[in-house]
Amino acid sequence: MKVVIAVDSFKGSMTSMEAGIAAKEGVLAAKPDAKVIVKPLADGGEGTTDALIEGMNGEKIDVTVTNPLGKKISSYYGYLKESNTAVIEMASAAGITLVDRKDPLNATTYGVGEMINDALSRGCQNFIIGIGGSATNDGGIGMLKALGFEFLDENGYDVGEGARALKKVVEIRTEKKNPLLSKAYFQVACDVKNPLCGENGATYIYGTQKGVTDAMKEEVDMAMKHYADVTESRLGGKYANVEGAGAAGGLGFAFLAYIKAELILGTDLILQAVGLEKELNGADVVITGEGYLDRQTAMGKAPVGVAKLAKKYGAKVIAFAGGVTSDAKKCNQVGIDAFFPIVRGVSTLEKAMDTHNAKENMRDSVEQVFRLL
Prior knowledge:
By secondary structure, the chain is an alpha/beta fold. Helix content is 36%, strand content 20%. The radius of gyration is 22 Å and the shape is elongated.
């Protein structure tokens, strides 16, 4: 029997690989001669860097960067030596959890560019970048400035940082951009489909959570459109209306228009990066799951991505979760043949979330299911 395991993290309890290894132990307890392969799983958002570092023998690279409000902070990204890939979460440099106040007119993505520069200087040529959870609405100007692009006002001065800088952009210069960018390939995990501007754009849909008031929205959105128009006139290409351009306060647009990055659904990008599909050939059973299984899982979260891929190869798909809801049955309609909660009795949340207990529950639950196979 060949079993492939790709389980998302049980946040606060088990990492992706901890859950996967516990599941492997359960399989082998029931089927000692089974061939079991464990792959990390993530959706491109929080935890992606850690999952790929742990699951793909990556290295944690510590770096000092600028946070959204201009303060120097310690952060890190992942380096996967085998594929010469840097794994970066923009939230680790420009995330909303890094600030104690919201200031969208000044908040900058500069630290994201600093992180990319560091990886480029180490010779990285492939980039996987997650862009969820931003505190910024700067159209990616901060990141681009860190990478050497220049944005000048009508008097030839730097336009500054944050959303307030967008309306000032008159001239864009690319002569000083990091030359290593031309040799790098960027894949951006992006599940947002919003355009850059308008009523469905970055400012109107996501600005409020970053501190953009109703009174600010029209002005900031117009400034974003101005920035996009100048970009188009100076660099060519029409990217403002591309799906995902409005992600992370317009950072998606910056990646598209200036870096020529590819925007990919987060789960699809990670599944591709970990090479899951090549392991599915000949698989009898695929195990997936996450901390909580519900109807949102069925709408395209990571376990469903695994299930759909597994079905291409005719494998049975079993999911395990910390908890399940009654509407999790929708998961059965999108490739998950059966799912099981791993909590094995009345328990406090604290006890259920304890890493040791969670691993034991996963191992024991998987073992019993596989004794039926």
